[in-house]
Specification:
Blueprint lengths: L7 H13 L1 H13 L12 E5 L6 H9 L8 E4 L12 E7 L5 H12 L3 E6 L2 H9 L3 E4 L14 H14 L7 H18 L9 H9 L3 E6 L4 H13 L6 E4 L21 E6 L6 H16 L3 E5 L6 H22 L1
Parallel strand pairs: 1-2, 1-3, 3-4, 4-5, 6-7, 6-8, 8-9
Helix pairs in contact: 1-11, 2-6, 2-7, 3-6, 3-9, 7-11, 8-11, 9-11
C-alpha cells in the first residue's frame, strides 16, 4: 500500500501499528526461513559478510551484537560498494535490500557472484530478487504483510528475524523455538505498557520522549544491546529528524569523558540515554553509574533504561520496542 497520499496523522498511525507488529514480523521471518531449503554446504563456511545499507542493515547489527560471543565464525557488516578482499568460495555473503534497488548492495551482489561466495539474499523484490531468481541463488523474498508503514527501518522484525533464522538453520549460532516464543511474549507484554493509549504517568516511553524534546540524544549501550541501540539511533535520525550519537561502554570511558567540556553551550543540548542491563558482564555494569556520575558532574542531563526480561534475546527486542516508542512519541512532539 502506498503511503504517499496519506495525511501525517494517518502515517503516524501506520508507524504505531508497525511497532505493534514487530512480534508478527519476527514470527513470519523465523517460520518461513526455518522451512526453506538451503544447501547443506552453506554450513561449512569460514566467515560471514553481511551487505546492506541504512534500515536494511539494522537487523544484522542486532544479531551481530546479540551473538557477539556466540557465533561460530567471524561476522562482518559491510556498508560499501565492494566486498572485503578475503571473500571467497568459503564465505557466506548475506545481501539485504528491503526494496531490492539499493545500488551498493546490488554491486556487492555481482561481486559475490564473481568470487563464487555462498550467497543469500533478503528482499521484498526489485533488482535483488531478479538476480536471485535469474542466478538461482538462495534467498528470502518476503511479503512485508506486517509492515504497514512501508518504511525499511520499521521492518526490523523481518530483517533481524531473517538473519537469526538463517544462521540458526546453518548451525552458525544456536537459537531455539522456545527462545523465539519467549521473545515474542516479552514484546507483546511491553507493547501494552508503552503504546499510545497508556497514560503518560504510567508510560516511560512518553516520559523519555518529553525529556528528549529539543535535545541531542547520546545513546550509550554495551554488548548484546549495541545493535538495538544502533537501530534506535537510526529511528531518531530518520523518523524524529533528530541528530543522535551512539557510544559503547567500555570504549567511551577511554576518551568521551574528556570531551564534555567544550563547547560549553552544547552541554544544555545533550541528554545521555544509558541502556544498562543486568546481563552485561559485571565489570561493564559497574561502569554505568560511574559514567553517569561523570556526565552529571559535567552539567549534562541523562536518562537510564534497563530491560526487565531475563534472557539476552528477549532484552534485545524489549529494548527495541521501548526505543521505537520513544522515537514515535518524540516525532509527535515535533
Amino acid at each position: 500500500m502506498s503511503t504517499q497520499k496519506l495525511s501525517l496523522e494517518e502515517k503516524f498511525k501506520l508507524v504505531a501499528e508497525t511497532i505493534r507488529s514487530y512480534p508478527a514480523q519476527l514470527r513470519q521471518a523465523w517460520d518461513e526461513i526455518s522451512k526453506m531449503y538451503i544447501p547443506n554446504e552453506y554450513k561449512n563456511v569460514d566467515n560471514i559478510v553481511f551487505c546492506g545499507m541504512g534500515g536494511s542493515a539494522l537487523g544484522a547489527r542486532m544479531v551481530d551484537s546479540y551473538a557477539f560471543d556466540r557465533l561460530r565464525v567471524p561476522f562482518e557488516i559491510f556498508n560499501e560498494y565492494k566486498l572485503p578482499n578475503y571473500v571467497n568460495n568459503k564465505s557466506l555473503v548475506i545481501l539485504s535490500s528491503y526494496s531490492g534497488t539499493t545500488e551498493e548492495t546490488l554491486e556487492a551482489t555481482y561481486e559475490a557472484i564473481k568470487k563464487q561466495a555462498k550467497i543469500f539474499g533478503i528482499t521484498t523484490g526489485g533488482g535483488l530478487s531478479e538476480i536471485i531468481i535469474k542466478e538461482k541463488l538462495s534467498g528470502y523474498i518476503f511479503e512485508p504483510t506486517h509492515n504497514p508503514s512501508g518504511q525499511p527501518r520499521m521492518s526490523i522484525g523481518y530483517a533481524s528475524g531473517a538473519v537469526l533464522a538463517l544462521l540458526s538453520k546453518l548451525s552458525l549460532i544456536t537459537v531455539t523455538n522456545e527462545e523465539i516464543e519467549e521473545t515474542i511474549a516479552t514484546m507483546n507484554e511491553v507493547l501494552t505498557e508503552y503504546q499510545e493509549g497508556t497514560p503518560s504517568e504510567k508510560n516511560l516511553a512518553k516520559k523519555y520522549a518529553d525529556k528528549l524534546k529539543g535535545k541531542i540524544p547520546i545513546i550509550v549501550a554495551s554488548e548484546h544491546l549495541v545493535g538495538t541501540a544502533h537501530t534506535i539511533k537510526n529511528q531518531f535520525n530518520e523518523s524524529a529528524k533528530t541528530f543522535c550519537a551512539l557510544f559503547e561502554i567500555p570504549e567511551l570511558n577511554h576518551h568521551l569523558m574528556e570531551g564534555l567540556k567544550n563547547p560549553e553551550k552544547l552541554r544544555n543540548l545533550f541528554t545521555f540515554f544509558f541502556i544498562n542491563s543486568k546481563l552485561y558482564a559485571q565489570k561493564i555494569q559497574k561502569r554505568y553509574p560511574l559514567t553517569s556520575e561523570v556526565v552529571e558532574k559535567n552539567g549534562v542531563d541523562y536518562l537510564i533504561y534497563s530491560p526487565r526480561s531475563v534472557n539476552r534475546l528477549s532484552q534485545v527486542y524489549e529494548t527495541l520496542v521501548f526505543g521505537s516508542f520513544v522515537v514515535y512519541f518524540l516525532t509527535h512532539e515535533y
